[in-house]
Design a protein that fits this description.
The chain is of the alpha/beta class. It has a single domain, classed as Rossmann fold, CATH 3.40.50.1240. About 35% of the residues lie in helices and about 20% in strands. The protein has a 7-stranded mixed sheet, sandwiched between helices. A two-stranded antiparallel sheet has the order 8-9. Helix 5 crosses helix 6. The two termini are about 20 Å apart.
Amino acid sequence: MKIYLLRHGLTGYNAEKRYQGVQDIPLSDEGRAQLVKADFCPDVVYVSPLSRARDTAKILFPHSRQVIVENLREMDFGVFEGRNYIEMENDPEYRAWVESGCELTCPGGESKAEFSNRCCAAFEQLADRAFDAGEETLVIMAHGGTQMAVMERYALPHREYYRWCGPNGGGYLLEGDKAVWKNERRLELQETVQYTLQEGGKDK
């Protein structure tokens, strides 16, 4: 089975490097203009409830049915949301979080472990269901954090969480064998994909 794990298009917060987390920040005009229709059309796209993911899916897969999966939403960064690292460089709570390797619980939000467990449980449920149904393709449109958590836990070759931070409007194509998935919870990275206008024309 092919599994596409995709990230939403550009938002104003992305451009300003602000933590957006579970805030429902829309795609920016630039972000919308960058996105291109995908070169395939799945019957269903599983999406985060946040509008930046749902609207990206509408542009890439205009004829696909969307199914919202609540636990695919981005990490809850609590009191850090809406601010960027420059604005918080002297904030003791933010400095403590960064110095922990971003492992501590964000004040008023989630820890990386809590977030990873949440979205990986949602991913496993979707993958199990798709394998059991004999589906050929599973498409998920969510967030950078969702990608990092899922890829760190299940993808081969193995890379650490932050090394899986993909670009807006892009992501990963994974290949899965049902027996290997059921027994080992492992998926093979096939390639990176990008659904934005690139210099010189369209990429994938």
